[in-house]
Amino acid sequence: MFNIILFGPPGSGKGTQSEKLIAAYGLKHLSTGDLLRSEIANKTPLGIEAKTIMDKGQLVPDEVVVGMISSALENNPHAKGFLFDGFPRTTAQSEALDKLLKLKNAEIGVVLAMDVSEEELVKRLLNRGLTSGRSDDTNEEVIRARIKEYQEKTTVVANYYGQFNKVVHLKGEGTVEEIFSSLCSEIDKRMSN
Ligand code: B4P
Questions:
Q1: CB atoms inside a 10 Å sphere around CB 82
Q2: Is residue 128 annotated as a catalytic residue, yes or no?
Q3: Model-level pTM?
Q4: Cα–Cα distance between 52 and 189 in angstroms, integer?
Q5: CB 16 less than 6 A from any atom of ligand 1
Q6: In the chain, what are the domain boundaries?
Q7: What is the pLDDT of residue 59?
Q8: Which fold is adopted by the domain 3-191?
Q9: Which stretches of the chain drop beneath a pLDDT of 70?
Q10: 72 lines ligand 1 (CB under 6 A)
Q11: Nearest CA to ligand 1 atom 36
């Protein structure tokens, strides 16, 4: 089983690249953002609580997202590997993920971190907000709050996996195809080891 974390700030291209990577490698895509948006669309109690938090650009509590990931892992016992997109976002989530994978005798193979400047992130997200219908993409103040939340709580995830030599930093600016190709070459290197 080969498991990948696609890592980077909001708007760095995680969702965009995930779609291409799962098609290329046959991995199961687990996006906590997508799982939360589906709870919101279904107006579940969890979704109603999450929407208030997400609309402020803040992170949803660790136990909520860890619970969602735990169920998703249980529901996919035959997956060839998982692509984690937007998860883990805190050290506590990283530790929880490692424990869940250990129960399956598995681990994270590589953390691919996409680096993009703040101005480019804001531009991309405002642009997506014009068509996506996502309330957290339409307001620049909320977008900047998400980036601040990332800098304060999520960058530490790279340090956590860095201690196990699992992090590779890549340029997240350029065309979608260029970035996809550099992600694939890093995955291929690690998969063949
Ligand atoms: P997510 O759904 O994870 O979304 P995101 O970080 O905003 O965006 P992503 O990185 O996937 O977008 P992409 O670059 O592909 O999170 C939303 C919210 O959910 C969080 O703020 C938080 O509240 C909550 N949440 C989710 N997971 C959580 C967790 N684990 N713990 C706690 N809370 C959690 O796309 C951006 C735009 O850029 C697109 O329009 C795309 O077309 C464009 N783009 C992509 N690549 C490009 C390129 N190379 N050039 C130009 N544009 C590009």
A1: 26
A2: yes
A3: 0.94
A4: 41
A5: yes
A6: 3-191
A7: 97
A8: Rossmann fold (3.40.50)
A9: none
A10: no
A11: 11
